[in-house]
Amino acid sequence: MEPVEINAGAWYLRGVQADVGYLWDVCEPITGEVVAEVSLDPRSGEIGVREQPGYAEAAQTAADAVRRFADTALGDA
């Protein structure tokens, strides 16, 4: 899938090239440090999240933004 960038307010989701589905690095906007990763399977709509210790809130904010992306861009995903 082609990478898609998402602005999630305090966090920036940088699209990563993926063979199947969508994948984002969740980055701190000033330093670009990757603090989490969010994936989306466009067939099932399943969202996966992995975060560094202490960044659960960033990961949840990113997952919420990915859900909105899926609902808007993919319809019933």
**Major sheet: arrangement of strands:** 1-2-3-4-5
Question: Residue ranges: pLDDT <50 for 5 or more in a row?
Answer: none
Q: Radius of gyration, rounded?
A: 11 Å
Helical percent range?
Answer: 10-25%
Q: What structural category arises from helix and sheet content?
A: alpha+beta
Number of domains: 1
Shape: globular
Distance between the termini: 15 Å
Tally of strands: 5
Outline the structure in words.
With 77 residues, the chain is of the alpha+beta class. The chain is built from 1 helix and 5 strands, in the order βββββα. A 5-stranded antiparallel sheet has the order 1-2-3-4-5, covered by helices on one side. The longest helix has 18 residues. The protein is globular and about 30 Å long. The protein starts with 5 loop residues before the first strand and ends with a helix.
